[in-house]
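Help!! Second protein's tokens look totally different from the first
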Amino acid sequence: MSDHVEVLDSHEATVGQLTVRRALPRRQLRTIGAWCFADHMGPAEVTETSGLDVGPHPHTGLKTVTWLVDGAVLHRDSLGSEQVIRPGQLNLMTAGHGVAHAEEATDSYRGTLQGVQLWVAQPEATRHGPAGFTHHAELPHVEIGAAELTVLAGTFAGATSPAQFDTELVGVDAVVGAGRATWELNPAFEYAVIALEGQVRIGDAVAHPGQIATLGTGRQEIDLEALETSRVLLLGGVPFPETLVMWWNFVARDRAEISAAVAAWRDRGERFGEVDSRLDRIPAPLPPWPSGSSA
């Protein structure tokens, strides 16, 4: 284990009507444990009828984790779920063999929208299983010095999230007052910190919003210094043992699986179902490889 911390820039992407900072995956950093995707959306101003506005689209082989810092978003999916999520709450959708969902304005909220959407890769044992959705209105909080932490996933500082996952991992949202903080870590996990607000020094590096700091494995603790009141997302987990092939909204193991999912979405079969949404269904782009390729 080295004390060196590498800081990587996110890249901008468009999701619905919003520009997001995509911290994962990066060319140099594909996964942190089973965490395989991280978008920081906003802050942006939205209205009652226009906001995130992501029309029905499919997923396979992952769990989506939606966490808001500000605002409200309406989730609808092909299971019949309809759930408004607000700050301090967690939406967890399991894709398994296939599910579709949409994220819409709420018809009632106007103001600032900010949050993160994360994907967790499902292991072989569960990735072909049924889809599911749960909403967690309350999550555990922990105070460590000048930091207030919310445990989104796994166990941290003695507090355990009610959200269920298929691999050992942890996800923590932390508002850190100016000054130094030390948190105990699991040396079997690999970790990264995504800066959401403010700026934090971790080891020999400083992370600003739009950056992700990688910590590697073997650490007993993290020592960070908030240079001002800051907000960070700590992600960690046991290194994922399987090779992933990710494309568009699918997490698979080879190209053939992704091509099959694209065809199923295009043909509107039973695999993904239908979403009762006012937004237009998003067509799947063609994969950037020859038809029939399985490499």
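Here's the second one for comparison:
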Amino acid sequence: MPEIIGELPKPRVLIVNPEGNNEAATAIEKLVPTVRYVTHGEMPNIRQLDWDAAVVFGDALGLEEHLYVIQFGGDWGGAIPTIQPQGGLIYQLKAVPRSRSIQFFVPDALPAAVRPLISSLVSLARSTSPNLVMHAGMQGVSNELSPNVAQPFLEDADHLVLAGCYLHPKTNARWWWLPADIEHPARWAAAALADWHNADPDKFPGGPSWQEREEWATPAELKLQARVKSLQEEFDKFAKDMEQKKLEVAIQQEEEFVRANNSDRRLITAQGDDLVDEVQAALEELGFIVTNVDREIAGEGDRREDLRVNDPDNLDWVAIVEVRGYRRGAQLNDLLRIGRFVARYAEETGKIPVASWYVVNHNLSQDPAVRPSPLVSNPSEVKTFADGGGLIIDSRFLFRIRMQVRSGGVESQQARARFISSTGMLDV
């Protein structure tokens, strides 16, 4: 083999356009044995085949396809022309402000050196909108395609790539693109070098330099290395424990979600017997004494009110309760029906009930937050109903006050007093 004169130790890295990133560039310089600082304007005067990689701050222009690249920010376009197999079209890579997502996905298969750095990438994505995403497109053509991103580091909810590794189709050189404001660019550069060593160990020799070997370390360095190892082990155990606890809580959360759908939230989702049962359960949770009339008093085919409610502090106080659920709005005829139930109650007991309640779950097809008040277009009829001791209870109100009592924000006696003293309308 002929003697090579002037060969520099690998990897040989160009640091391109580092203005404003001097601290990061200096840190990167310590990671590799051979570096050269250049600007875009100097690139035509460099034989790029003498170099293995480039660390680029901002726009990447005029780089050759054999170079491994990590780029921080800039317009990704102009970096590498890529030949697509279909039709031999030439595309250019670029970053465009496209993602406005608030949800992000971290792929399972990440380079080992990248995973510890992902949290900084996620934090930046959450604080920025819109986020740049990696795209490929033909010059002068508005259509844009996803490039051949061999390894996304972070994706949004639409699977747009916010950072990742592009694999050149001809040379298999890796091109990492990261947002300009990412924290610790030197650490990302170190992660790239570790990943590139696995891809091309000839260009990117692995292993520590002699200055990092233990035989040449000071006692203080050895002590700190041991401390770092201990802390990493401690952190790994903590992370494992937290992941297990997070999983347990997530399971509990899912179980509670299912339970609430099958019970508490029936107040704002159900109709028929399911709604009647849940209204009864809610009133009993507030401390009322509740009788299901259909099950405990009325005979077969004898249509009565759904519930009777007594105040535990005053058993002479009684309200008859009709419970209804509708896909659309509450029905005015229900107030007339309650009047007939009052007459039946007086015939049965010889007394007039103190109160008549109409509990209604209405407009079920709408989000509860935007449902109108029940019978909002019938104020005169509502006032007449109220004058006779009538109370219309939006089931959303019953859900909320039930939750307030359960969480301790309202005493159950206070909640009962609100119902007993009210006529007209109780809604959200």
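Reply: Different proteins will give different token patterns, so don't panic. Residues 219-261 form the longest helix (43 residues).
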